[in-house]
Write a structure and sequence with these properties.
It is a single chain. By secondary structure, the chain is an alpha+beta fold. Helix content is 37%, strand content 26%. The protein is built from 12 helices and 17 strands. A 6-stranded antiparallel β-sheet has the order 14-13-12-15-16-17. The radius of gyration is 26 Å and the shape is globular. The protein starts with 5 loop residues before the first helix and ends with a strand.
């Protein structure tokens, strides 16, 4: 019998409710018939439901990375609760009677194989480079430059007059300016200006200095983005090369990469095994969107990367929320977004599996043995105004303990230490360290942490996310 885990079922489910309903159907004995092909690739079940007739649901694992699910129920969810219930039947080891693969399924398989073979054959044929409408592209770049000039004037005025001038009746004017940036194809600067406005509004309500610090950070980012982008776009227009390149400013300005475009730029990798070390959800008020974030380690190189799934408030019911994966994703191909540090990664197909002892040993082997070089690298990255506010790294430690002032600190094998603390935009995790049931986890282990700069304290700090031990990964963030 094909092995199915609950984690795989949860990952396949369109939402948690569908998975829960599927589990209930299985637990209540909703199936009157269970059948499977002798080669363990096709599974079928007859399930009672609310309709006049029983529902026939099936799961085709001819391609384990892309299983095909079918059901005669009227649900628009894919897979539906009846199909998920069939998977729960498989997981629980219920007996399946042997049956031949239905003729219609064999025909659909043959069509799919023929389509895949044709696609593979077409891929071998030389293709002409995609044509770029240079005139339209140049027109857009010129429009963006106009918008950047407007943004630069705004930033200069704020830097001269001070952020205090954004208060009171002037805020609606700045909101109007933020909307105008969208008309200039500049959603990136638009979000930064919106973030600046939100921080000033919050500061005016409670007077907390952290909001003012966030406003200053947003203003610095906006200024850096405007200056670098104006130079970047002007050079492209002057050279006549208005096509896309691998410059991270494309996305900073608000551009959206296609999978195929990243492949064409040589940013793809084949046959990756990525172990998820942490998972969390953020809400970006400026974007009005939830972001599901996973942190992954390449088991071959140790490179850390992030997956980001955006769920705008306006489309929450249409965009599936990502779930954590307590294991490894094996994917035949993935692409990495341009940028420095912990880059964003994306793939289209993959197979999830549990993390073995060898996988955990590989992850632990990539950890920095000393703090000094890791701290230096993090500082060099974070001083760039356009970089992400947190730099994720694996760090080996001798112990985690409280200092004289009661603060928690991490100490490496040389005795160097760094203060552990929570970044204001992240869920708190540091307080969970003393709560760990096994004190051995605080000695001679590997930590996945995020380096961040505390402007108020004027020092670099490290937020703990997960502990990678020989026996498993202990997540402090979830």
């Amino acid at each position: 019998m094909r092995q199915i885990t609950e984690q795989q079922i949860t990952a396949l489910a369109p939402n948690p409710a569908a998975a829960a309903n599927g589990r209930k159907i299985s637990q209540k004995g909703g199936f009157v018939r269970l059948e499977a092909s002798e080669d363990d690739t096709f599974f079928l079940g007859e399930c009672t439901g609310s309709g006049m007739h029983n529902y026939i649901t099936s799961a085709d694992f001819l391609d384990p990375a892309q299983p095909v699910f079918r059901c005669t129920c009227p649900s628009r969810q894919y897979p539906c609760k009846h199909t998920l219930a069939l998977l729960y039947e498989m997981m629980s080891g219920k007996p399946f009677a042997i049956r031949a693969i239905p003729e219609d399924i064999q025909q659909r398989r043959q069509k799919k194989e023929a389509k895949a073979a044709k696609a593979a054959e077409d891929a071998k044929k030389p293709k002409a480079a995609p044509k770029t409408n240079k005139a339209a592209r140049a027109k857009k770049l010129k429009k963006q430059l106009e918008g950047l000039e407007l943004a630069e004037k705004l930033v200069r005025d704020l830097m001269t007059a001070g952020l205090g001038t954004m208060g009171g009746t002037s805020l609606p004017t700045y909101r109007t300016l933020a909307k105008q940036l969208g008309d200039y194809y500049l959603p990136g600067p638009q979000r930064l200006l919106s973030r600046l406005i939100l921080a000033i509004e919050a500061f005016q309500k409670d007077g907390d200095d952290r909001w003012y610090d966030q406003a200053i950070a947003a203003l610095e980012q906006l200024w850096a983005l405007v200056k670098k982008s104006r130079q970047y776009l002007a050079q492209k227009l002057e050279s006549g090369d208005v096509g896309q390149d691998d410059n991270a400013l494309f996305e900073d300005l608000g551009g959206v990469w296609k999978f195929s475009e990243l492949l064409e730029l040589g940013l793809g990798k084949n046959d990756l095994s990525l172990c998820q070390l942490a998972f969390w959800v953020e809400f970006d008020d400026a974007r009005k969107s939830y972001i599901d974030i996973g942190c992954w380690a390449d088991l071959a190189t140790g490179e850390l990367s992030l997956t980001e799934n955006y769920r705008p408030l306006k489309a929450l019911k249409y965009v599936k929320q990502e779930d954590s994966l307590f294991g490894v994703m094996d994917t035949p191909a993935a692409v990495f977004y341009p940028g420095d540090g912990c880059r964003r990664v994306r793939w289209e197909t993959g197979t999830a599996r549990g993390a073995s002892d060898a996988d955990l040993a590989a992850v632990r082997g990539f950890a920095a043995l000393e703090l000094a070089p890791a701290v230096k690298a993090a500082k060099n990255l974070l001083k760039n105004a356009l970089s992400a506010p947190m730099d994720f790294r694996l760090v080996a430690y001798r112990r985690i303990a409280r200092g004289p002032g009661g603060e928690l600190a991490l100490q490496d094998s040389k005795g160097d230490t760094i203060l552990l603390d929570d970044a204001p935009w992240m869920e708190a995790t540091t307080h969970r360290l003393p709560m760990l049931p096994d004190g051995a986890l605080l000695r001679d282990q590997v930590l996945l942490g995020g380096f961040w700069y505390d402007g108020a304290a004027r020092r670099l700090k490290l937020q703990p996310l997960s502990i990678v031990a020989a026996g498993g990964i202990v997540r402090l963030l979830y």
